[in-house]
Amino acid sequence: MGKKKGNKAAASSDDFLQTLEDFTSKENWDKFFTLRGNDDSFEWYAEWPQLRDSLLPLLQDSSSSSSSSLQILVPGCGNSRLSEHLYDAGFRDITNVDFSKVVISDMLRRNIRTRPELRWRVMDITKMQLADESFDTVLDKGALDALMEPEVGTKLGNLYLSEAKRVLKPGGKFICLTLAESHVLALLFSRFRFGWKMNVHSIAQKRSNLKTFMVVAEKENSVLLHEITSAFDLLSLGRNDSQGSGMREALESENQIRRDCNNGSDLLYSHEDLKLGIKGDLTELTGGRRIKFTLGGQGSNFSYRAVLLDAQKQTEPFVYHCGVFLVPKTRAHEWLFSSEEGQWQVVESSQAARLIMVFLDSSHSGATMEDIQNDLSPMVTQLAPRNDDEEARIPYMMASDGIKKRDTVHEVTSSLTGKVVVEDVVYESAPSNLEDLSPSSDLAFRRLVFERTEGLIQSEALLVEDGDILEQSQKEKTKNVSQLKRKGNKKQNQEPSRPLMRVSHDYLASSYHTGIISGFTLVSSYLKKAESCGTMVKTVVIGLGAGLLPMFLHGCLPFFSIEAVELDPVMLNVSKDYFGFTHNDRLKVHIADGIKFIRDITNSEASSEETSNGGSNGDSTAHNTQGGTCPDILIIDVDSADSSGGLTCPASDFIEETFLLSVKRALPQHGLFVVNLVSRSQSVKDMVVSRMKKVFDHLFGLQLEEEDDVNVVLFGLCSESVISESDIPESAVILEGLLKCQRLETKQSIIDATKKLKCWK
Asked: Where is the Methyltransferase type domain (predicted)?
């Protein structure tokens, strides 16, 4: 893979991307190679003149006696000339595989006479029909990079690396030529930990701004964990070079993990690590053994986070020798399942000698429990302890979804949003910060759910008794009873009425709302100055939802002037009718396209500046029929109608560089831009962060840990001068003084969240 040659030499990598579109699609590659023909080779990066001096010594240093007998596998070979160059350099035993029948046929025709010993096979590199331990070298030139598409996450990459490790002989080498994107390195380094020696080389490039790195992993017979070494000075990678600095950061981070592990710290192991015996013989029970690990890979449809626990008292009579306990996403953050102490309580109640606790997440939302059990079954069997009773079954237990009671309040279908559901739920256990609120009765919450993102709660609010309505209701009831008595009605036993409930707008049930407001710490000095001067702080929220965030800001920050922008008028009706949303002079709603709304503000401001510079005597303040003046704070909180690209929130248009530039132009120097980012794909999150770093002078992030690394709130600042992380505690105190929250626990949760704010630029 690489650059076009001949008359097309000037074509850029962008042309390749537009031609191919999806690196993981067999049909796209077939079309691509058909269009190019068998004589037009394609070297994505690292051409032979630059690669030769680094690669040949590694191959010649192999344990094989001669280069001609070295067995080399080239997965995802494409129509690269790499194998031809190796053949001409004396390496004869080379097997090339690719899932494109078109390119394999072309390469066979091209080489059958001049290089007859080269082998070409049509094969999917994620499930290769090749014998175990049959190759001395697996030489990957861009194959792993191509498999790591954001839409598929790490699944294909994991499958492929499992195959590469399987077919390598002891002492063999996996040589990976890569552009070293962060999500690729994260997978690559973590999959070659125990029993592998790793080294990284930098390949000199000509006529390209892209660096190519060569990562070499040598298979050992031991299970030692080595630090990764580099064949070049890490300090030579310039800090302004994103590729170089990314490699340096990845190496430093991975080596720190390896040092910590060798010093006794806990580590998230893989299933493969455990099968190597890293944590002892798993066929034997060891009282009190607890191992965090990941499941999934070859032959599995899903990946899972899991904990293996051997009962602390192995003398107890057990009902099961091994059991599986499934924890749904909605309950994974609870103390009982997230803490070590709580997990041991689950083990005790399960009556299993070994319990494998498996945590489900959003990626499993479309699967039935039968699908999950069928997927887990072969892997769990490998993890079960030795048992004399060969027919003993492994039971599957599951925590409920944590909801004791669920009532559907309203359903409506919108042409823009699809099916919208409003439901009232009572949880089996109350949130920790509300446990003392109503000890004698169950707390109820009202939730907004979109069918298109079934596993995601769009909005959630606490329901409380409405004192005003209740008092009025009692007066009406007393009046009616008096009238009945005067009319001689003898009926005395009236059925007690249910308490009338309303949404509480001074409690934040959604953790990301808490995170958004905690970021106001970054501009708290300006907010304090505005409040002192009686200046209104204009805040624009793109995405109304249930209206909970605008209502909270309206109530707890009385010097805020809030404008919510919502594309779907159905959502405005839902927020009014079921979530108590109201608007006034300080809280307005626009039914409009959020992208256009911000661009109209930018254009209006630009026109105002031109008028002002032209000497107009009129008011130079920018106005717009929708947007008005520039906001001080802009919050993006909209979901994506299409999350197939790995982005659940916001819609992709809101993180395009052109829109981000419009935002920066619309904000003043003291302005704050907030994005609620939801994605399971690390590469997608890295892409969004990279774009925001490019546009904004400073970037802060807040990771919501309880959301399993899916939800992160990003804060972009326009000013060159900004507070440092060390100043955040002092700035948080200012924000705390500005918040007029009736519930102290709500204010405290916001201030606690400020401790998670991290400076990313």
From this structure: 75-176
CA distance 715 to 634: 10
Nearest C-alpha neighbor of 365 from the set 302, 412, 276, 438: 302
Strand partners, 413: 419
Rg (alpha carbons) of the chain, rounded to whole number: 31
Task: Concatenate the DSSP letters of all residues of 648-682 into one string.
Answer: -BS-GGGGSHHHHHHHHHHS-TT-EEEEEEE-S-H
Residues 365, 370: Cα–Cα separation, whole Å: 13
Strand partners, 465: 501
What are the residue ranges of helices labelled H in 79-215? 82-88, 101-111, 143-147, 155-167, 182-191
DSSP, res 452:
G
> For residues 322, 326, 331 and 335, what is the CA-based torsion angle, rounded to 10 degrees?
10
Alpha-carbon distances of 164 from 82, 129, 157, 188, 323, rounded to whole Å: 18, 12, 10, 12, 32
Judge whether 559 and 530 are in contact, CB under 8 Å.
Answer: yes
**Is-contact 749 508, C-beta < 8 A?**
yes
Q: CA–CA distance from 174 to each of 191, 196, 257, 329, 587 (Å)?
A: 12, 10, 22, 36, 60
Round to whole Å and give the CA distance between 560 and 562. 6
In this prediction, residue 391 carries a pLDDT of: 76
Characterize 196-220 residue by residue with b for buried, 16 or more Cβ atoms within 10 angstroms of its Cβ, and e for exposed: bbbbbbbbeeeeeeebbbbbbbbbe
- CA torsion, ordered 176, 177, 179, 183, to nearest 10 deg: -10
Contacts of 473 (CB under 8 A, 6+ apart): 497, 500
- The phi-psi region of residue 709 (left if phi > 0; otherwise alpha if psi is between -120 and 50; otherwise beta) is left
696: left (phi over 0), alpha (psi -120 to 50) or beta: beta
pLDDT tens digits, one per residue of 303-342? 899 999 999 988 778 999 999 999 988 778 777 888 888 8
- What is the side-by-side order of every strand in the sheet holding 304-310? 269-270, 290-295, 304-310, 354-359, 323-327, 396-398
CA angle 455, 460, 465 (to 5 degrees): 145
CB 227 within 8 A of CB 217: no
DSSP-derived pairing of the beta strands 444-450 and 418-427: antiparallel
Q: What is the distance of C-alpha 680 from the center of its chain?
A: 3
Instruction: Name the residue among 622, 713, 633 with its Cα closest to residue 670.
Output: 633
- The residue assigned the tokens 């708290």 is 524
Q: What would the pLDDT profile of 142-188 be if each residue is shown by its tens digit?
A: 899 988 876 667 888 888 999 999 999 999 999 999 988 888 999 99
Whether 715 contacts 672, CB under 8 Å: yes
**Range of 338-342, 367-371, 575-579 with top mean pLDDT:** 575-579
Which distant-in-sequence residues (6+ apart) come within 8 Å of 349 by Cβ? none
**Sheet of 196-203: strands edge to edge?**
119-122, 94-98, 72-75, 135-141, 168-178, 212-219, 196-203, 229-230
The angle at the Cα of 231, spanning 228 to 237, to the nearest 5 degrees, equals 95
- Cβ atoms of 750 and 539 within 8 Å: the answer is no
Exposure string for 534-558, b = 16+ CB within 10 A, e = fewer: eeebbbbbbbbbbbbbbbbbbebbe
Question: Which range has highest mean pLDDT (22-26, 274-278, 291-295, 329-333)?
Answer: 291-295
Residue where the block lists tokens 């958004």: 516
Residue-wise pLDDT tens digits, 447-477: 998 887 756 788 899 999 876 444 444 444 4
Tokens read off for 106: 């072309």
d(CA 552, CA 545): 13
**Residue 308 CA from chain centroid, whole number:** 24
CA dist 175 and 511 (Å) reads: 43
The answer to whether residues 167 and 132 touch, using CB atoms and an 8 Å cutoff, is yes
Length of the chain: 761
Residue with tokens 């546009």, as numbered in its chain: 695
